[in-house]
Amino acid sequence: MSVSEKLMRLDRRWVFLLLIVVCVFTFYADFQIPILTEPESEAIYEFIDSLPPGDIVFIAIDYDPNAWAELHPMTFAIAEHCWRKNLRIIFTALSQNGPGMADQAIRDLSDSLKLDRVYNGVEFKGREIVRGVDYTFLGYKPYYALVILGMGQDFRLPFPTDYYGTPLDSLPMMKGVFNYDQVACVVSVSGGTIADAWVSYGQGRFGFPLFFGLTGVMTAQYYPFLGSGQVSGLMGGLLGAAQYEELADNPGRAKEGMRVQLLAHIVIIVFILLGNVGLFVSYRRKLKEGR
Amino acid sequence: MKRQLPFVLVFIFGVFMVFQYFAPHEKSERIYEFFLDWIYIIGTFALALGIWSLFRVSVDKIKNHKEAWRYSYVTLAGLYLMIAFGFTQRVGEPWGWYFVWLLLSLVCLGSVMQARAATSTGQKKKYAAAALVALALAVVVALLDDAWAFYFYTAEGLENSMFRVFFDYILIPILATMFSLLAFFIASAAYRSFRARNVLASLLLVAALLVMMRFNPWIPGAEQVARASNWLMNVPNLAAQRAIVVGVGLGMVATALKVVLGIERGYMGKG
Amino acid sequence: MDFQTFLWTTFGVFVTLSIFSFLYKDNPFYKFAEHLVVGVSAGYFVIILWHNSLKPNLFLRLADGDWYFLWLNSSAPWYIIPAILGALMWTRFSKDYAWVSRWPMAMYIGIATGMAIPLEMSNRVNKQLYAMMADINWENFFGHGGFDLFDTLSGFSQVLIFVGTLTGLIYFFFSKAHTGLFGGMARVGICTLMIGFGASFGFTVMARISLFINRIQDVDVWRQAAFDSSNPGHHAGFYVVFWVLALFVVGYTVYEVASHLMRKQAAG
Questions:
Q1: In angstroms, rounded to a whole number, what is the distance separating the alpha carbons of residues C181 and A96?
Q2: Going by fewer Cβ within 10 Å, which terminus of chain C is more open, N or C?
């Protein structure tokens, strides 16, 4: 058996092992790579950065733990950016396991925001994040398309109470806030088809500025909406999260993961090239043998 | 009545929703909000069907000792524990006899499953007796221990630390890891089947390589590669995806029209 | 990190490694983790449906009067109707009365499809076609500020978007044979689509690798917590738990590899 044929018949578990070794070694190696930002991510950062204190940002945490790796860093980066700028946030979670993700993010961010920090040369004093004043977490309802429509009429229609059972009318932040008209923008951090519903049923019907944080798998499919102006900004995958962390000067898991991403991509490209070299070698052999 | 009425209902509701979109009069908006309000409740009952199905399948597997039936105990234990955590919460700091109550109720549940699966009458009686004893003890513990309580009408259960622990340290790691296996399968698939056999496959390959290398600072002309990749996403990729979006949109509208007009009837099932 | 949290983190790492063990082969640890997550996930969903959906939207509205008489004293007693309709969904499990579940399903399907018609037509078709036919920027046809092929807003890029979208749509039109000029345009369309799929694949690779990177990060958090002597609550128990799991994983791996080699030797 020739070398190329042996390579083609390689047990895939050796491929798995090589990938694990490369990723683990790169993780513990001490180097950083520069993150170049793209206009799609810059649009989201600049919009949120331009909002005056007190404005409300609607963050829809529409993903499950399977997309946690890429989307949780986005949620952290955006929510921390909003709270550092004294913006108020309405969270909702329209995916099945989204409420738990949102609950965890809020708890972790509340701890993080108690510390004094400096971002982009500006000092931010640590503070306590208060439920009902700095944020409202609406929770989950099934049938996200109809929930998005219902929130356009009145948040109280699908969500008479928040996630913790408190009536919305008794929350100080929700006084005078009825629907998307009182919200500066909607940021949907989504791992599935809920993003489609935000475009068609949300932005399409109510016309608010819509931004997306999407998994890498979905990102390419939403560029048409970016091009048509239906979506005003887009963060795609771990790179998008790293770009937002770079813009916000708030390095986190995304930036840390990009160097491992780089080496892993190089390994996969080597695999692809090896496979194609094998293909060309076998073509040449067949040509020589007159087949 | 059995088959015709549902199609009439689909037509009436469908036409009303189209009409309401183009004529958002105050009265039609009231009716529209009414419908939405009802759908949230009806939809919740529909989703509960799936949970009941899971329970039935697991119980059936244990009863009939089907393949890997012992693992169904793990499934049922996980299901029961999350529900128990979600409806209970400690009153102060100590947990009291909470975990004893949980253990007793799990023993009761397990004994009931074993009783159903038992083949001889003697075994059935033994397990049924064990279930009754465990149930009685669990009830006694629940009634006498005031370190914790049941909360069905308020949401304390959502803040139960055990509920959060199970979500953070069981649900998240397992689901995240299950999907991370795909990293290996995509590497293996890329190695085995990503071949430039013809012009089209080569185009796909070149586009993929350009996108994968766009954040690599070590290749010569890294900035130009990044710009080229960004152009590829915003021009040819956008064109391709737009064609797909328009095609899918037309398909969705056509299918929705067929459903509303009763031409498409498969969703109602047989009978 | 306190010891209790560390123990739960250790369990999280254990189930993570159990799932990863599937890469070698199916085994009891993987099956255990798989069945556990199914049950926990279902139980979690029951709680969320109750606290976030049924309770606020139905029971609180029905019980705003006298608790004991529920809807009879409620200010909104009509909410009993969607409750009944929802309960009728459960007749799906009955052989004789399954047809009753079609009525509430018909309501939902009618509302969802009725709403989809104008919104999907407007947002997926009309707005996309409108964007496709944007005015061509003839002044900056080859790029703003000179010749720049990678300017996404240049007239050239706009023409490419128009041609690519149109030919892509032509490719999907299968009612006419793809021959002659039509076939040529369809060929351009499929080339454009291949570029789009390639871009999707590139992003997909990044997405999948990110998922694995995250698991490494989480296992590393556990490792760091085990050896974090600056933590005031740190004690010998952290090391014991760490080494118990580490040695168990290494031991089981060695056992599996050795068994595999012995079986191979016996077969060969």
A1: 49
A2: C
Task: Reduce the DSSP state of residue C262 to 3 states and report it.
Answer: helix
CA distances from C57 to A103, A165, B19, B157 (A): 21, 11, 26, 18
Structure-token pair, residue A148: 């998005």
Q: What is the distance in angstroms between the Cα of B161 and the nearest Cα belonging to chain C? A: 11
Q: Do B184 and C212 touch (CB under 8 A)?
A: yes
Check: CB of residue B238 under 8 Å from CB of residue C161. Answer: yes
Closest chain A CA to residue B33:
A150
Q: Which residues of A touch C210 (CB under 8 A)?
A: 69-70, 216, 237-238, 257, 261
Whether residue B240 is predicted with pLDDT greater than 90 in this model: the reply is yes
Residue A131 DSSP code: B
User: Max Cα separation, chain B?
Assistant: 80
From the list C49, C204, C206, which residue is nearest A261 (CB)? C206
- Give, rounded to a whole angstrom, the gap between the first and last alpha carbons of chain A: 19
Substitution target from B3, B38, B113, B161 for chain C, most C beta carbons within 10 A? B38
- How far apart (Å, rounded) are the C-alpha atoms in residues A231 and C131? 13
pLDDT band at B120 (very low <50, low <70, confident <90, very high): confident
pLDDT of C67 strictly over 80: no
Q: In Å, how far are B36, C219, C221, C235 from C1, measured between CA atoms?
A: 45, 14, 10, 11
Please state, in angstroms and rounded to a whole number, the distance separating the CA atoms of residues A44 and A51. Answer: 11
- Reading the block at residue A215, the tokens are 């998994």
Q: In sequence order, which residues have a C-beta less than 8 Å from that of residue A204 and are 6 or more positions away?
A: A230, C119, C122, C123, C127
Cα–Cα distance, C100 to B1 (Å, whole number): 10
Tokens for B137?
Answer: 């003890």
- What angle (nearest 5°) sits at the alpha carbon of residue A262, between those of residues A257 and A264? 95
Confidence of residue A145 (pLDDT cuts 50, 70, 90): very high
Q: How far apart are CA C83 and CA C54, in angstroms?
A: 9
Tens digit of each residue's pLDDT (9 = 90 or more) over A149-159? 999 999 999 99
The predicted pLDDT at position B53 comes to 87
Interchain pair C213, A227: CB under 8 A: no
Q: What are phi and psi of B147, to 5 degrees?
A: -75, -20
Is 70 exceeded by the pLDDT of residue C99? yes
What is the interface size between B and C, counted as CB pairs within 8 Å? 406
Q: Over the stretch C28-38, which tens digit does the pLDDT of each residue have?
A: 999 999 999 99
**Cα gap C75→B127, rounded to integer Å:** 48
| pTM metric for this prediction | 0.92
